[in-house]
Amino acid sequence: MSDLFPPFAPDPNEPRKRLFKPVPFRMIAPNIITLIALCLGLWAIRLAFDGQYERAVVAVIVAAFLDGVDGRIARLLKGTSRFGAELDSLADFLNFGVTPALIIYSFVLHELGRVGWIGSIVLAIAAALRLARFNVMIDDPNRPEWKKNFFVGMAAPMGAMCALLPLYLSFLGIPIQESSVGPIVLVYVVGVAFLMVSTIPTYSGKTMGKYVPRQWVLPIFVLSVAAFGLLISFPWEMLSLITVAFLATIPISVMRYRKLDRQDGSGVAAAGSSPSGVEPPPVA
């Protein structure tokens, strides 16, 4: 019987079969940054429940910075993937939807009871709807190139930063936590939620700054260092100023978008008048 099943010794030089295909690190690095941002969002919720609102706001701001970095690093390293896009979207919902909603509720909206809780829910749901719409529109192959300079509605990270404006003002000494100010904060938070789900175009800045004139290089360096120094030295003043300045640019972005849309529409109409884009000569 032993002759039917002789002992078998495997070849030591035969390569071992791998159960999983190795993944390049350039595909993993952007996802690590996204996970760090996700941890910051969860940490901000805990800090808010502990009453450490300043540290909670800083955690959200850093998470917003990392959210702007991970996508650019992925494109730079050619490490974009469908998994990374889905992970980034889920992290954005928590960091810029759930987290700011819970922070603002714990800070002031809880004074309004159920109405304040509904306002927080509206902010979180608006972020989810805005991200879902963004994921659908990004796959549109017919989208004109100039529209990449605009978001449809307010981006989720900027929406979170704008929603936290009452906290910035409170850190500056303005009495935001008084019961009489609660309804004003509620209306403001719902307004930010509306801007996120609306079709109002806002500047994205993704394609801006690809090429900088040589004479502007050194001034940009100086201004960047000055802005960073002011942000570190006067964080709440600068965050309040940036938020108000961004909200003030929304009418400008709407006018610019409409102007480009009219130009694009007139160009398409002129090109569609004939197959070659040139009007045919009149027939005698």
UniProtKB/TrEMBL annotation:
Domain (CDP-alcohol phosphatidyltransferase C-terminal): residue spans on this chain: 215-251
GO biological process: phospholipid biosynthetic process
Membrane-spanning segments: 25-45, 57-77, 89-109, 115-138, 150-169, 181-204, 238-257
Gene Ontology CC terms: membrane
Keyword Cell inner membrane: no
Record membrane topology: Multi-pass membrane protein
Cell location: Membrane
Main location: membrane
UniProt keyword ATP-binding, yes or no: no
Listed GO MF terms: phosphotransferase activity, for other substituted phosphate groups
PROSITE patterns from the UniProt entry: CDP_ALCOHOL_P_TRANSF
Pfam families: CDP-OH_P_tran_2, CDP-OH_P_transf
Keyword terms: Lipid biosynthesis, Lipid metabolism, Membrane, Phospholipid biosynthesis, Phospholipid metabolism, Transferase, Transmembrane, Transmembrane helix
Family: Belongs to the CDP-alcohol phosphatidyltransferase class-I family.
Protein name according to UniProt: Phosphatidylserine synthase
